[in-house]
Write a structure and sequence with these properties.
Length: 164
């Protein structure tokens, strides 16, 4: 059924166009008292006026569009400036909070660095004490080994073959 209505509307379009052309011709002939040349000139003049009016209208519409664009841009810039002014106090508030947080983090890091330095110094002190104890023990063991046993004889200790 949809196809038949589409077909009907096409046939109507041809009918309307077919009626419009003779009606336009009759109008211009009637306006010019049946003179065909004058009717043709009158139709051309009306077509030219219609075209120029449309072009003028386009220029007018274009000017209105340009004006509307300029107003919209100016309004958008004004609103952006207002928003920026409104955001400045909030920006300062956020900046203050961030700086406070950074100060707390910085203080915490400095405390942890100091604690790590103390721990490292403590560990180094313990290692130094243990190294001195180990050195003293080794010297004692070396002296004991030197004075007795097979090596002791070679290096000047008592009871060895090198004592001759």
């Amino acid at each position: 059924m949809a196809q038949t209505q589409a077909a009907k509307s096409r046939s109507r379009l041809g009918l309307y166009l077919g009626l419009a052309v003779p009606a336009a011709i009759g109008y211009y002939l009637y306006q010019n008292n049946g003179d065909a040349k004058a009717a043709a000139l009158s139709a051309r003049a009306d077509a030219r006026n219609a075209r120029e009016g449309t072009l003028d209208g386009t220029a007018y519409v274009g000017a209105k569009v340009d004006d509307a664009y300029d107003r919209t841009v100016a309004e958008a810039r004004s609103k952006a400036a207002e928003l920026q002014k409104g955001l400045q106090p909030k920006l300062g508030e956020v900046e203050g909070k961030v700086n406070g947080w950074l100060d707390r983090v910085d203080h915490k890091v400095e405390e942890e660095v100091e604690r790590a330095k103390r721990e490292a110094a403590k560990l180094l002190g313990q290692a130094e004490v243990e190294a001195k104890e180990a050195e003293a023990k080794l010297k004692g063991e070396a002296a004991k080994a030197k004075s007795s046993g097979w090596f002791g004889g070679w290096f000047g200790g008592a009871g060895g073959a090198a004592k001759n």
